[in-house]
């Protein structure tokens, strides 16, 4: 028995009726539209995931090879100073993130999400290519580190702009009641970048000798990222826009909001993001901690990134799925509370039994709770802002929090360790930030049905 639906078209000025067919089964027009919308959503998720994944892959691969980069671009007799300058160059990228979020976010709110994402892709490609082919200090002298700084600034600028446009596109393309899980791909893609950087580091460590990596093989990960860019660029060109022309030219109701209204929501996003940022950079700091405090090998530190990324991807999506069902308030608060509760026992277990397997297992459990909270929060935070200002507002508040708390995380962790001579001082900082970042979830902006109720792209 066939269920038949009719559509019509004009061909040579003659109107003819026809039926759509899929694998021999006639389908009604409503079903065809539903399938097309589903395909568009899948394409949007793939488009943003590839872009975000490469952005964060590029950002984390720099830290993976920071010691090599220090020798190539900062070959000073003082090895500590050389490494500090390389790390400082990495930190410079954080300063450019809020600027990129403001500029590209404004551009995306005026010209569309996909236009902004194409722009970030171009900038990211230029920055990645600069690092991949840039000669070292021995050939260019002082110009080499200066160009490296310029490349990092460009990458930070593009990463800051990517966040707002990509997250807005994901959330606005989601069907009603599913914005949490669709938006959580933003967080999952960040963990995917970490996973890929860890996998690349492990591959290079197995395929090349240490002298080869120091000489030229460290450039391979940046070249590999460039090779993926054409496919991602094509997908972004054909992605379905969510900020349509009629919406861009319609009266801007977001201007009716007071400065205090925006300031309140910007502060909410920055506070919630701060807890997740400190936790995330604790995991990145874990590689340094494993080498200098626990005495693990540098190759093992690469495995840490791989396992943390592998854990973060599915649990971020789980957090988004749970937020659609139970609301972001319950998911985020529970995730942060679990992380805060387990932090001290987890660190005690690591110091009591400092074996690689124990270290990996403990960090994976902590990462699971962190990823659930972050994945459950991102869509709710994004929808705090009206559509015409969403890209700039969510991007700027998120990038500002990451720059403030992420850019200083390693410095804070190192200082606490030096002053208190105990890793538990770092745990105290993480616990305090996790608990403080959960407090805004008690505000009326985050009701149980927040995600589903506020998913009105044209009005929000």
Task: Break the fold down into its secondary structure elements and pairings.
Elements: E1 7-11, E2 14-18, E3 20-22, E4 25-27, H1 29-64, H2 66-73, H3 79-111, H4 113-133, H5 137-140, H6 143-173, H7 179-183, H8 185-207, H9 210-215, H10 220-237, H11 245-249, H12 259-292, H13 298-326, H14 328-352, H15 356-382, H16 387-406, H17 409-420, H18 424-438, H19 450-453
Antiparallel strand pairs: 1-2, 3-4
Which class of secondary structure composition applies to the elements? Answer: mainly alpha
CATH superfamily of the largest domain: MFS general substrate transporter like domains
CATH C-level category of the largest domain? Mainly Alpha
First and last CA, distance: 43 Å
Q: Helical stretch count?
A: 19
Give the C-alpha Rg. 23 Å
Looking at the overall shape, the CATH architecture of the largest domain is Up-down Bundle
The number of distinct β-strands equals 4
* N-to-C series of helices and strands: EEEEHHHHHHHHHHHHHHHHHHH
- In CATH, the topology of the largest domain is named Growth Hormone, Chain: A
Give the helix level as a range of percent.
over 70%
From the spread of the alpha carbons, the general shape counts as globular
Strand fraction band? Answer: under 5%
Overall mean pLDDT: 83
Domains counted in the coordinates: how many?
2
Q: Which regions have little confidence, pLDDT < 50, spanning 5+ residues?
A: 1-23, 451-460
Largest sheet, in brief, is:
2 strands, antiparallel
Spatial strand sequence of the major β-sheet: 1-2
């Amino acid at each position: 028995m066939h269920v038949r639906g009719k559509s019509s078209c004009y061909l040579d000025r003659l109107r003819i009726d026809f039926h759509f067919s899929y694998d021999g089964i006639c389908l009604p027009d409503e079903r065809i539209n539903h399938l097309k919308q589903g395909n568009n959503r899948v394409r949007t998720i793939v488009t943003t995931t590839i872009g975000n994944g490469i952005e964060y892959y590029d950002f984390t691969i720099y830290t993976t090879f920071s010691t090599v980069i220090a020798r190539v671009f900062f070959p000073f007799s003082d090895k500590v100073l050389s490494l500090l300058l390389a790390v400082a160059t990495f930190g410079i990228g954080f300063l450019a993130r809020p600027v990129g979020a403001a500029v590209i976010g404004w551009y995306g709110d005026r010209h569309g999400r996909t236009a902004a994402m194409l722009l970030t892709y171009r900038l990211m490609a230029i920055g990645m290519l600069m690092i991949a082919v840039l000669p070292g200090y021995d050939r260019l002298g002082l110009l080499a580190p200066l160009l490296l700084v310029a490349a990092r600034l460009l990458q930070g600028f593009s990463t800051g702009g990517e966040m707002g446009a990509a997250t807005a596109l994901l959330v606005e393309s989601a069907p009603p009641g599913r914005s949490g899980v669709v938006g959580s791909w933003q967080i999952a893609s960040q963990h995917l970048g970490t996973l890929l950087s860890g996998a690349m580091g492990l591959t290079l460590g197995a395929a090349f000798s240490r002298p080869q990596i120091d000489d030229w093989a460290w450039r391979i990960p940046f070249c590999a990222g460039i090779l993926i860019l054409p496919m991602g660029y094509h997908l972004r060109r054909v992605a379905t826009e969510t900020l349509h022309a009629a919406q861009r030219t319609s009266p801007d109701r977001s201007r009716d909001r007071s400065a205090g209204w925006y300031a309140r929501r910007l502060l909410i996003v920055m506070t919630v993001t701060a807890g997740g940022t400190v936790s995330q950079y604790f995991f990145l700091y874990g590689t340094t901690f494993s080498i200098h405090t626990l005495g693990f090998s540098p190759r093992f530190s690469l495995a840490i990134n791989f396992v943390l990324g592998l854990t973060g991807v599915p649990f971020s999506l789980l957090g988004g799925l749970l937020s659609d069902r139970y609301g972001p308030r319950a998911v985020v608060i529970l995730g942060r509370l679990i992380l805060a509760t387990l932090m001290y026992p987890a660190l005690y277990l690591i110091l009591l039994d400092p074996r690689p397997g124990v270290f990996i297992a403990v960090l994976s459990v902590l990462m699971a709770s962190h990823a659930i909270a972050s994945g459950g929060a991102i869509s709710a935070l994004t929808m705090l802002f009206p559509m015409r200002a969403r890209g700039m507002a969510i991007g700027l508040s998120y990038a500002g929090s990451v720059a403030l708390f992420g850019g200083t995380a390693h410095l804070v962790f190192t200082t606490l360790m030096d002053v208190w001579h105990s890793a538990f001082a770092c745990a105290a900082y993480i616990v305090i930030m996790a608990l403080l970042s959960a407090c805004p979830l008690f505000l009326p902006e985050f009701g149980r049905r927040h995600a589903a109720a506020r998913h009105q792209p044209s009005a929000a």
